[in-house]
Specification:
- The chain is α/β, with parallel strands linked by helices.
- The protein folds into two domains: 95 residues, Rossmann fold, CATH 3.40.50.2300; 61 residues, Arc Repressor Mutant, subunit A (Orthogonal Bundle), CATH 1.10.10.10.
- The chain has seven helices and five strands.
- Helix 3 links the parallel strand 3 and strand 4.
Length: 187
């Protein structure tokens, strides 16, 4: 499920949105009151949904879209003057006052958009990890849990995703396979 981050200047509106989403089965990842806090959270997220309850001090919705719009879907819930000042077409809008059903409908739509992009990447990552494990099992005589643990430990120690490390293993395997095919036969 998408990580949902709620930001806005009003503590009451952040809490109200969080209660609404949580009671409807949408886990809220973080609540942010300031631009600095919000940027730190978004820098740590690979993807997700950002719900802006009005304006965030020192930061416009357009700026957030320019910086994070590639991997975060943004929903701006605000009064008409704030919405009219927003220039980016990629930001979803809800005008205040709005209903709880409208908010939940918008979050459901953004969640579905998020999931449409997610499975392809996750499936490819899983396939890459499984291929690398099979390679390690064959080359090093490891069991599946041993190969998994070895890959997991290396990835954690080097601050990388396991799928990225698995891709490196497969690239090295391909290179070594090509090198041995191109080598001159020994007599």
């Amino acid at each position: 499920m998408a990580r949902i981050v709620i930001a806005g200047s009003s503590e009451q509106s952040r809490a109200q949105l969080a209660r609404l989403l949580s009671s409807s089965g949408y886990p809220v990842y973080r609540l942010c009151a300031s631009a600095g806090e919000l940027r730190r959270v978004l820098n740590d997220c690979d993807d997700g949904i950002l719900i802006l309850g009005g304006q965030v001090p020192e930061c416009s919705a357009d700026e957030l879209y320019w910086d994070y719009g590639r991997h975060v879907r943004i929903l701006l819930i605000a009064r008409p003057p704030v919405l009219e000042a927003c220039e980016e077409d990629g930001i979803f809008h809800l005008s205040l006052p709005t209903s709880q059903q409208a908010v939940l409908g918008a979050v459901e739509m953004l969640t579905q958009l998020h999931q449409m992009n997610l499975p392809k990447r996750a499936r490819n990552d899983r396939q890459t990890v499984e291929e690398a494990k099979r390679y390690l099992m064959h080359q090093e005589g490891l069991t599946e849990p041993q190969a998994h643990r070895q890959m997991q430990q290396y990835a954690m120690n080097h601050g990388m995703k396991m799928a990225d490390y698995a891709a490196q293993i497969l690239e090295r395997a391909e290179k070594s396979g090509n090198d041995s095919e191109n080598a001159a036969p020994s007599s």
